[in-house]
Amino acid sequence: MAIDVLFRPFNFKGLRIPNRVVMAPMTRSFSPQGIVSAEVAQYYRRRAEGLVGLIISEGTGVDRPASLNDPNVPRFHGEKELVGWRQVIDGVHAAGGLMAPQLWHVGAVRTREKSWEPPGAYDTPSGLSRPDKKFGEPMSAEDIADAVRAFAAGALAAKKLKFDAVELHGAHGYLIDQFFWDGTNRREDAYGGRNLPGRARFAADIVRAVRAAVGPEFPIVLRISQWKQQDFAVKLAKTPRELEEWLKPLVDAGVDILHCSQRRFWEPEFEGSDLNFAGWAKKVTGLPTITVGSVGLTGEFIAAYGGESSRPASLDELIRRLDREEFDLVAVGRALLQDPRWLVKVREGRTDELLAFDRSAFATMS
To answer: Among the listed ranges 87-91, 289-293, 297-301, which one has the minimum average pLDDT value?
Structure first.
C-alpha cells in the first residue's frame, strides 16, 4: 500500500508535525541521580535527525518523593535536572524535531533496584498495588493536592523550556491509572467510587491544573490504556458507552490528544467492530488520537523485555487504518529504539535494511 499516508503533515493546536510518526516513550534508565546527560540528549537528537515527527520522552518523575521507582530514571523538576532537559530540547529543535516530555508518577510500583528506596512514602489511591495486594498507604487529601500541583509544575517547566507539548502518563497501572482501576482504587471519597467517571476525577484535576498552568494553546497529550502491567486482561471500559463515560471528564478538563496504548495495534477493542483502542477513543470523543502497539515488528514489547526478539513486519494494516482516519498519529517504540534511521528507511523503500529488534538494544543509547 502507498506509504505516503505516513508522511502527511498533521497540524493541531500549534503542533505542526511534518509526518504521522511519533516516537513512543520508553524507559531507558541512563540518567544517574535523575539527571539527563549529553549522551541522552544525543539519543533524542538522533531520532529527530531520523525524521521522527514528534518525540515523546521516556517517563520523567514529577516533584513527589516516590514518583519514581528507579534512581536512574530522569526527573522533570530541580535546577540541575531542568538544565539537562534544556540541552535535550535544544538539540531536538536544532535537528528540526518536535518534542514533549512525558510526566510520570509510578504510584504503587515497587522499586526496580534492590539496594535503593525512594526518599519518601509510596503514593497509592488505597494502599494496594493490585487487587487485594497491600502496598503502602492511601493518599491523603493533602497528598492528592500536592501530586496535582507537581504535574502542573512539570508541565509549566516544559513550556518554559520551549518543549512543543506535554504528555501525562495515565496508563499501564501507574498512579493515575491506579485511580482509574477499581482493582486498586477502593476510595469512598470524591476520588473513588464504583463508576469510572468518578475514579477519573484525580486525572481530570491534574489535567485542569496543567491547563491552568500552561494556558489554552499548549497541547496536552494523555496516555491511557485498558491493560495494566499487573493484569494484561483488565478492561476499564467494557463497551463504547463506558469508554465515552470514562474519557468525557478528561476531555472536558482540557486534554487535546489521547495516546491510546495497546499491546498490538491491530486488535479490535470491542466486539462488532474492527476499530482499535485509538479508533474508538477518537470516535467517542472527537479528539485526535495516537495508536501504538507492536508497530513494524512481529512480536510485542512485553515479550521483548523477557528476551524475545522481533522481526520487521509489514506496515500495510497500519497504513490501511491510518488512511481511513481511524486514528491520526502512530507511535513507534522498539523499531526506533533499535534504529534511529527506521523512518528514513521506510520512506525510501529500503525495507530490506530494516532491523530486527533484539533485547540488547535496551542496554545501549545508540
So the answer is: 297-301
Strand partners, 228: 172, 231
Of 220, 224, 228, the C-alpha closest to 200 is 224
How far apart CA 117 and CA 128 sit, in angstroms, is: 18
Tell me which residue of 67, 61, 71, 65 sits closest to 101, measured CA to CA.
61
Select from 84, 256, 93 the least CA-distant residue to 163. Answer: 93
Smallest Cα–Cα separation from 166: which of 63, 41, 55?
A: 55
DSSP readout, 309-328? Answer: -B-B---HHHHHHHHTTS-S
This prediction has a pTM of 0.96
| DSSP at 263 | S
Q: Which three cell numbers stand for residue 235?
A: 478492561
Indicate which residues carry an active-site annotation: 174
186-230 pLDDT per residue, tens? 999 999 999 999 999 999 999 999 999 999 999 999 999 999 999
Residue 32 DSSP code:
G
Least confident of 18-27, 143-152, 233-242, 308-317: 308-317
Q: What is 223-240 written as a DSSP string?
A: EEEEEETTBTT--S-SSH
Task: Look at residue 176 and give its three-state secondary structure.
Answer: helix
Residue of 259, 203, 197, 261 whose CA lies nearest to 232: 261
Q: How far apart are CA 70 and CA 331, in angstroms?
A: 24
* SS3 state of residue 222: strand
